Amino acid sequence: MKYKIIYASIFFLAFLLVTGLIYWLNNQYTNIFQFDFSKRKIANRTIIHSAVNNTKTANAGISLSGSMDRKISPKIVTKYDTVFISSPLDEKLIDSLRIIRKMVQNLMNKTKEQQSNSDSAAVNSKKKDEEWLAKTAKLFEEMDPKKAAKIIQKYSDNESRQILYKIKKKQAAAILSELSPDVAKKYTESL
Predict the structure, then answer these.
(1) Distance between CA 27 and CA 43 in Å, rounded?
(2) pLDDT by 10s per residue, the chain, length 191
(3) Does pTM top 0.90 for this prediction?
(4) Rounded-to-integer distance, Cα 2 and Cα 43, Å
């Protein structure tokens, strides 16, 4: 138990030392995490605060008329450790960003149109498939079961299955009875 307390206190002390070192280095150098150990540029700003006994003026003790009859406290100078980064706006850059934004918007509109066109094409294709299936099923209902069995075997398994399920039960049973047992089993199995 004694060793656990000693190890925990050593770990805690090491943690505090490393944290303090990182804090101090971060304040001294630009960016220690990117290994940029150049001295930090500090912009010292001097702000002069003055207090006025008269609370009617909200301009931090500066009189608009400039009269000296008010009592002004001594000047207090405060330095702030602040880094200012200012980048002028480049008009060419702003125009380029506008053009890129328009191009992206146009591309998005085109993809939406293409997607809606492909969706409508898929719907039309599905309707055509359903119409073909209905017409073909009617033809097989009217055929002789032996001839229908020979023809239906030439279709793919899925098409044959769909046609058989679309036909009336009696005619489908007659067609299945003309097929070999293996083929009939293949058409009647569930997907």
Answers:
(1) 14
(2) 788 899 999 999 999 999 999 888 888 888 888 888 888 776 544 444 333 344 344 444 444 444 444 444 455 555 555 665 556 667 778 888 899 999 999 999 999 888 888 888 888 888 888 898 899 889 889 999 999 999 988 888 888 888 988 999 999 999 989 998 888 888 887 64
(3) no
(4) 51
> Residue 61 to residues 46, 47, 55, 76, 78: CA-CA distances in angstroms?
17, 14, 9, 13, 17
Spatial separation of the C-alpha atoms in residues 175 and 188, rounded to whole Å? 12
Q: Which two tokens stand for residue 13?
A: 């002390």
Neighbours of 19 (CB within 10 A): 10
Give the burial string for 77-94 (b: 16+ CB within 10 Å, else e): eeeeeeeeeeeeeeeeee
For the chain, the first-to-last Cα distance in angstroms comes to 67
Residues in Cβ contact with 155 at an 8 Å cutoff, skipping those fewer than 6 apart: 163
Is beta strand 29-31 parallel, antiparallel or unpaired with respect to 36-39? antiparallel
